[in-house]
Amino acid sequence: xxxxxxxxxxxxxxxxxxxxxxxxxxxxxxxxxxxxxxxxxxxxxxxxxxxxxxxxxxxxxxxxxxxxxxxxxxxxxxxxxxxxxxxxxxxxxxxxxxxxxxxxxxxxxxxxxxxxxxxxxxxxxxxxxxxxxxxxxxxxxxxxxxxxxxxxxxxxxxxxxxxxxxxxxxxxxxxxxxxxxxxxxxxxxxxxxxxxxxxxxxxxxxxxxxxxxxxxxxxxxxxxxxxxxxxxxxxxxxxxxxxxxxxxxxxxxxxxxxxxxxxxxxxxxxxxxxxxxxxxxxxxxxxxxxxxxxxxxxxxxxxxxxxxxxxxxxxxxxxxxxxxxxxxxxxxxxxxxxxxxxxxxxxxxxxxx
Length: 353
Description:
The chain is an alpha/beta fold and 353 residues long. The chain is 44% helix and 16% strand. The chain contains 12 helices and 12 strands. The strands form 2 sheets. Strands 1, 2, 3, 4, 5 and 11 form a 6-stranded mixed β-sheet that branches. The model is unreliable at 4-9 (pLDDT under 50).
């Protein structure tokens, strides 16, 4: 919304609504849109103000994309894979099972052609996307029973969205897609048997340790879950060039800030969960990981076979992943392996005090 009259610097003022898929002020995820709004206000000296609305305040959690596309709100913050039913290619802009890490995603989007493909994917809906933060590698999730082999996935009802949900179903479970605000109650009442949300920092805030006993890693399904800011294309077009630049750079800064915060806070939250709340930390069995990887390849092949845009994005994603893995094999991965050799394995058994 544009407001007539001079702003703080003599220019036109604008007021935008930003709707999110997250509960208001949820640590990490919910903090990102608030950070964005603050940065925009500071950098524009009040010429562009953004008010953040949590899930359900204006639109339902999973109604964010339609709200921005239809002009109900100028902006949204969420995760692209929530729109998979409408836009199959969208899943690549959140996470691919056994795919890219957070920094690899940043590289692909900003220097590997990914952002241009993202904008092409959303253009028919009048929506412009920007990278909106990453959680880093997530946890595999919370389970109300121990997993000893792939057989234990059969019949398990799990909240797990995106491509990973299809993979989980193909592996014998049943995937359920529900928003964050309903997860705790769904686990508590037995509507679902397991849930993946994010990782220790967010999961502790939601109290998921109160409704599940086992906490599994690694996050095969979301190795670098990218979130998104989406902007109504007409609303963006009405801004003068300097405010457009502020929107772009505030999103870029928020994108990095979220990853920094999760990196800083996850381990302390995990220690809290294990030592104070007696959570049972477990690694997924090898045969479970092998089955999930096998089904991931099958699900991806089916997805891209049925949608030309998904194929186009997949080809770019896959080429970049192959190249970045080759380099990280002698850089990031090689260094982490070497550090573990000289300093010891950091994955130690954690027991409650």
